[in-house]
Amino acid sequence: MGRDIRKVLLIGPMPPPPGGVSVHLSRLLQLSENAQGLRLSVLDLRKRRWFGKSKQSGNWFRLLYELFTADIIHIHISKPLKSWLGKISKVLGKKLVYTQHNLRDLENKATLQIMKDADRIIFVQEPSPFPGNFRDKISVIPAYLPSIENPPVPEWFKAELQAYPNIILSLSFHEPGRPTLHEGKDLYGFDQILEVLPRIHEKINLKGWMLLLIDPNGTMTSFYSPKMDRVQKQTGIRMIFINEPFDILPVLASCKMLLRTTWSDGDALSLREALAAGIPAIASDCVPRPQGTIVYKTGDLSELEEKITAVIQNPYRITFRQPDFSQSIFQLYSSL
Q1: Which residues lie closer than 8 Å to 206 by C-beta, 6 or more apart?
Q2: Are 307 and 296 in contact (CB under 8 A)?
Q3: Which of 50, 182, 196, 307 is the least crowded, having the fewest Cβ atoms under 10 Å away?
């Protein structure tokens, strides 16, 4: 390998399951094929595997080799381990980049430590207030990256679509077996959706509608399945809870809307993909949302009900094209 090629080791999750961060890393790796002067790879600590552009390995010698020979370490994990990984990277003489994928936990010890150690910090949306101590090394780069793959539509979905052509889609990404809570509430707000749909059904007959909730790790199955059964019997809305890895891209075009009912968030990949596909996207205002998003006050069920009802009564398709933010990331690497 020529000396002009800089090796970048990304540390974070890879699919499956597909989540905002894992899909971001997978796509960044794919898009790096055309990045001049850079060679990217990913180390997934949970899987204990290294992923290159065209191969992968679980061999510990390969994992250590990639760690020691990298020029840049880019950390994408949120757990306290990130601060230790940051320290190790600096001891090894590496340039350190850290991405903060949400606006939570900005004041905890691990986050403050890795931001202190990092050469550059990426926020996926502008924080407020802006961390003054690190202002000079922060870049705001949204997490959305375009997909270069076209996965097929699942056969079971085609059959369901014939009977239920009107689909409301929402998804979450809890840790396996551990719900992600925000002040004691389900971070992703599926409960809000199940609360407002029966209210809407009292005013508008939702026969022929489907609610598709995706929780790829199955963490909330026992909590939501009974509630979904009750709502289905009460309204006749088809309820499907997917508790395994699932790619929303092939089904997005068939949906009538996407809901992002979160209490806290990052730069939600699903939201930008819906906007890029022309799908109405309704989201809480807990963070700034991309242009085209229909926002409602976080946690306000009446306003959520109003926004969903408006889209049902006045369906539309407007495409909001999304930039390829990978180029900004590659430029950041090249500047180190």
Answers
A1: 166, 197, 200, 235, 236, 237, 312
A2: yes
A3: 182
The candidate with the shortest Cα–Cα distance to 332, out of 126, 53, 122, 147, is 122
Q: Are 167 and 254 in contact (CB under 8 A)?
A: yes
Instruction: Give me the phi and psi of 40, to 5 degrees please.
Output: -100, 150
Q: What is the pLDDT of residues 108-162, one digit of tens each?
A: 899 999 999 999 999 998 887 777 788 899 999 999 999 888 888 999 999 999 9
110 phi/psi in degrees, rounded to 5: -65, -40
Q: Are 31 and 148 in contact (CB under 8 A)?
A: yes
Q: Give the global pTM.
A: 0.86
SS3 171: strand
Identify whether the C-beta of residue 125 lies closer than 8 Å to the C-beta of residue 103.
yes
The pLDDT assigned to 126 comes to 85
- Report how far apart the first and last C-alpha atoms of the chain are (Å, whole number): 19
pLDDT tens digits, residue range 277-311? 999 999 999 999 999 999 999 999 999 999 999 99
**Strands 95-100, 72-75: parallel, antiparallel or unpaired by DSSP?**
parallel
Q: Is the peptide bond before 129 cis (omega within 30 degrees of 0)?
A: yes
Predicted confidence (pLDDT) at residue 2 exceeds the cutoff of 90: no
CB 172 within 8 A of CB 188: yes
170: closest CA among 248, 281, 260? 260
Q: Which is it for strands 181-182 and 185-186: parallel, antiparallel or unpaired?
A: antiparallel
Q: Is 195 helix (H, G, I), strand (E, B) or coil?
A: helix
Specify the pLDDT at position 3.
55
Which ranges of the chain does DSSP label H, i.e. alpha helix? 20-31, 60-69, 81-91, 109-117, 155-163, 190-203, 221-235, 249-252, 269-276, 301-313, 326-335
User: How is residue 10 written in tokens?
Assistant: 């990304």
